[in-house]
Write a structure and sequence with these properties.
single chain, 21 strands, three-stranded antiparallel sheet, 50% helix, 17 helices
């Protein structure tokens, strides 16, 4: 019966592929069911071929590990949990929770990225606890945060990039704003749930330490030494290395009511709008600049920067947020799927692959939550249908090696965030599900729902 329904939904989706880019009429409920069916299909293949492994290889059926080398922590499984729950895939959600309770163990002699492990696994477990109410799941999140916490014991309070999960020995002091300051929503939530303020206090100290080292232009650069507080790079960007720093300044205000973080967000955003805002052919972009002089150093954008329109909208700059998102939507229309790198001055991709990224769908979802305009749903629809057309492989959804080739050339990797982010954004955009509070909610940078699930529905 499930196969038959998937066939019906595929037909609906195929009809919508031919819709004009700005056509905002669609059967959103049918699209939501299509997303749900694809999630169930991918989960069942993950269970059959990579159960408990970090990431499935959708083309070959193999697997890869992350964030540890050659050891698995069930990353994709943990990241998928709250997506399964909000979609009503309850039996699959329960089997995932059972694996976490019986098999997930962080007592491993190996180094992990503190940032990646926190947003993906601590955040994933917290959102799974939000969905299930299971105290064992919360205990797993606390155990992992305890193992990451020694990374914050630097002279500045900014965390080292990596830590050994068993020994607590930190390493790699040269870090980035995203690595340093993307913790407060998860760790503040953990403090609230456990009554232990160490997590919130460590995360907040790191944010303040980074913000206090901004340049006279109120910009931050991509690399800093957490031991000395000295900058090791001069490039200011809204993309990779800095993106979630800005996001979590706003989020700490939204979720935790931290007024100091709201002030820091306002200061950083004003500087970005003053020194990095660039219009080209009627399209809004944000140049990379020297963080002390404001001089443009690059017109290349990485795909991760496409999240920024949604953040601007959340922060009150709705017109600019919409313009930024529309700029990226035009690139999506041109290539079908966004390339990893794009030079807005030349109008050319600089990196032709795509790592199955969710950022444009994220921006569309955040803007839609604010004004409910069908245009944002249409951008999410186009994002989903393009993914179905080009990223679907034998054993799941894969990233792409070249978005400019015809047909687009697949790679063989499904990142853990796919399970947590775009599938959830699509579903929440289309479904109007009673399991989610569309007025009062919070989704992390990894798409984990820490506020907004509605139970008994």
């Amino acid at each position: 019966m499930r196969i038959g329904r998937r066939g019906m939904m595929a037909g609906t989706a195929a009809a919508l592929v031919g819709a004009k880019p700005h056509d905002t009429t669609a059967d959103w409920k049918a699209l939501a069911e299509d997303v749900k069916a694809e999630m169930a299909w991918a989960w069942d293949l993950y269970k059959e071929h990579a159960w408990g492994k970090d990431e499935i290889k959708p083309v070959s059926g193999g697997n890869s590990s992350f964030p540890l080398k050659n050891r698995h922590l069930g990353l994709s499984l943990v990241e998928a949990l709250d997506t399964l729950w909000v979609m009503g895939l309850d039996s699959r959600f329960r089997e995932g929770i059972d694996w976490v309770k019986t098999s997930l163990d962080f007592d491993v002699d190996g180094e992990v990225s503190v940032f990646e492990t926190s947003i993906r696994l601590v955040g994933g477990l917290l959102s799974a606890h939000h969905a299930s109410g299971d105290r064992t799941v919360l205990a797993k999140a606390k155990d992992l945060a305890d193992r990451l916490l020694p990374a914050f014991a630097s002279p500045t309070g900014m965390p080292y990039r990596k830590i050994n999960l068993r020994t607590g020995k930190p390493s790699e002091p040269i870090s980035s704003p995203a690595d340093i300051a993307t913790y407060l929503p998860e760790w503040g939530t953990l403090s609230r749930l456990t009554g232990d303020m160490r997590y919130r206090d460590a995360a907040r100290k790191a944010v303040v330490a980074l913000f206090d080292r901004r340049s006279r232009l109120d910009l931050v650069a991509t690399q800093i030494d957490v031991r000395s507080g000295e900058w090791r790079d001069r490039r200011a960007t809204i993309g990779s290395y800095c993106d979630s720093f800005f996001e979590y300044l706003w989020d700490a205000w939204q979720l935790l009511g931290d007024t100091a973080c709201k002030h820091m967000y306002d200061v950083c955003t004003a500087a970005i709008l003053k020194h990095q805002q660039t219009w080209k052919g009627g399209n809004l972009w944000f140049a990379d600049v020297d963080f002390e002089s404001g001089q443009v150093v690059s017109t290349e954008q990485d795909e991760l920067a496409s999240f920024y329109g949604g953040l601007l909208g959340q922060g009150g700059a709705m017109k600019l947020g919409a313009a930024c998102t529309e700029s990226w939507a035009k690139v999506q229309t041109r290539f079908g799927i966004l390339p990893e790198g794009y030079d807005y001055a030349k109008g050319e991709p600089t990196q032709k692959g795509n790592a199955l990224r969710p950022e444009l769908a994220d921006a569309a979802f955040n803007l839609w939550l604010l004004d409910r305009k069908p245009r944002w749903r249409a951008i999410g629809r186009d994002h989903f249908l393009a993914m179905k057309r080009w990223n679907k492989a034998r054993y799941g959804y894969t990233d792409l090696a070249d978005v400019t080739s015809d047909p687009k050339r697949q790679a063989d990797h499904c990142p853990g965030y796919w399970w947590s982010e775009q599938m959830k954004y699509y579903y929440l955009l289309f479904a109007d599900t009673p399991r989610f509070d569309y007025r009062r909610n919070y989704l992390s940078t990894e798409g984990n729902v820490l506020l907004g699930f509605r139970h008994g529905r």
